[in-house]
Amino acid sequence: MLKKSWQGKQLKIAGVIAFGLLATACSQTRPELAASANGSVAAGTSQDFVVNVGDRIYFLNDQTALSGEARMVLDKQAMWLNNYGAYTVTIEGHADERGTRQYNIALGARRAAATKDYLVSRGVSPSRIKTISYGKERPVAVCNAESCWSQNRRAVTVLNGAGS
Amino acid sequence: MSKAFSLIKAQSSKRLFYKMRCFAGGALALLASSFVTQPAFALLELDITQGNVQPMPIALPFLAGVGTQTGMAEDISNVIWADLQRSGLFAPIDRQAYIQKGMNANSMPRFGDWRTIGSQALVSGSIVAQPDGQIKAEFRLWDVFAGQQLIGQQFFTRPDNWRRLAHIIADSIYQRLTGEKGYFDTRIVFIDETGPKDKRRKRLAIMDQDGANVRYLTRGDNLVLTPRFSPVRQEVTYMSYQGQNPQVYLFNIETGQREMLGHFPGMTFAPRFSPDGQSVIMSLQQGSNANLFLMDLRSRRTTRLTNTPAIDTSPSFSPDGRQVVFESDRGGTQQLYVMNSDGSNAHRISFGPGRYSTPVWSPRGDLIAFTKVNQGRFMIGVMRPDGKGERILTEGYHNEGPAWAPNGRVLIFFRDTPGEKGGPKVWTVDLTGYNERELQTPGFASDPAWSPVLE
């Protein structure tokens, strides 16, 4: 499922390259993903983490429970972080726009906390993990549909220095 | 900017108030004496206790400019007009219909002429340049049917305060005719939003209550949210992500000084002043839980008010400072709770279908406004502090975050529109649910909060 969505993004990138499409489309692709289109990602880099591990998990509406899929991603994240012990991370918790501001700030914090707790349970030292909530303030998808809102209800594990 | 504000303050504290006998002029002196012998009238007053108020027809001829900058008297007149009209309680009559022309502060109205065009109230006056560079405003409010003067006032101020002068006059008219305090000489603090939806730049901004004089208080480098006005000082509390460390801040509008409030072991958010302005109540996030804390601004001591494994947020004091309303999901979904201000006796007050959030206690004490979300619809409503008497004032795709005008008569909130091009705008609505109006802002705008009436 998650693989699929990554493939989707890669296809979009391919499209951008092939047709030289609009700048707006370009701005939605991230440089570390573009690199993956070449298949040349060095192990232990932030590109490696984003492309081969997956930096984000998704939540159901108004939920903070980790799905089976989310746990699989976090298992891989924990393994990777345990391999590359020099990295510290910031987990960003986010909510979709269909809630009120203050509650969403707390909801994003809960999602980040749930993500952190899981990584800690898989052996990542809590001292390496910071959390921050952006509530509904930082959507990645902007359409007026569940297909976008579901992408925004997320927790993103950001390698420090790597940017999100 | 800080200078301008303090000057305005100084000026308005020197506000002079004269009864009509202060005005020279034969006709008016005559009228003054006639007061004595007149029988008691049921003087003009607008009944605004009913749901759907019939706006009062009022005549607002241009104030006469005497030696003032071209257009200033007209501009002041137009701001008074716009204030009264936007309140929804007054229907200013088109100036072309006026029969008696050339009114000024010393004109005796020909009441028959004003009755003929259907006006119930009339405002006349002058703006007169003073030798010291100030301007003098004289105005009178007349009851057209009784043929009586209701108000005669004089103000002195600097010409660049002309908008405030207009709002002060409009407040005076509003208060005399409705029996409620005016709210035109106030400001709105809000979040200005620019840029695409997935890269919004948010700035703390302030404007006059009618949308004029927008100024930006932060540059947009940091995400800022939920500003709230101090009830007693030119001070705002808000949340900022400065240094990627989301915390509650204080901002002094007069000095431009900014400071983080306290050093909490986690994110602080959803701040609001206590009614005496001496404390800030807010949420502290620790792990999965958000609880309510009170910080005394003088001693900087903090007191924990709630201790639950839940999201307790959006606290708002009752105007007497004895109770706090807040939202909590301790029962499973977002609902409204009221507790004593020491944290005791928390009890749920919202029981309708859907989720309730962002409660805010009316400055009159009798109502709590809130955001309600039900089946994908976002509404602004009010209920009594015991949870009874719920009324929805507006409903749609996304309405959020009500705040009260200082007289408890009008609510301001933001309305978001869907999709990539969508964004929030600020709206006002009368407590009755009528007179919903967009407040024009330069860009998208959210999280509005009202200042107290300026002093």
Report on this model:
The complex is a heterodimer of chains A (164) and B (455). A 4-stranded mixed beta sheet of chain A has the order 1-4-2-3. Chain A has 7 helices and 4 strands. The radius of gyration of chain A is 16 Å and the shape is globular. In chain A, strand 2 (89-94), helix 6 (101-121) and strand 3 form a beta-alpha-beta unit. The two termini of chain A are 22 Å apart. Chain A folds into 2 domains: 1-40, no CATH class; 44-159, 60s Ribosomal Protein L30, Chain: A, CATH 3.30.1330.60. In chain A, 51% of the residues lie in helices and 13% in strands. Chain A has 164 residues and is α+β, with helices and mostly antiparallel strands. Chain B is mainly beta and 455 residues long. Chain B folds into 2 domains: 2-41 and 55-178, Rossmann fold; 187-450, 6 Propeller (Neuraminidase), CATH 2.120.10.30. In chain B, helix 3 (72-86) packs across helix 5 (162-178). Chain B has 5 helices and 30 strands. Chain B is globular, with a radius of gyration of 24 Å. In chain B, strands 1, 2, 3, 4, 5 and 6 form a 6-stranded mixed beta sheet that branches. A 4-stranded antiparallel beta sheet of chain B has the order 9-8-7-30, with no helix packed on it. In chain B, strands 10-11-12-13 form a 4-stranded antiparallel beta sheet, with no helix packed on it. In chain B, 14% of the residues lie in helices and 39% in strands. In chain B, a hairpin with a 5-residue loop joins strand 4 and strand 5 (135-143). The A-B interface holds A 64, 90, 97-103, 105-107, 109-110, 113-114, 132-135, 137-144 and B 196-198, 200, 202, 223, 225-226, 239, 244, 246, 267, 269-270, 283, 285, 287-288, 290, 311, 313-314, 327, 329, 334, 357-358, 371, 373, 376, 398, 400-401, 416, 418-420, 422, 447.
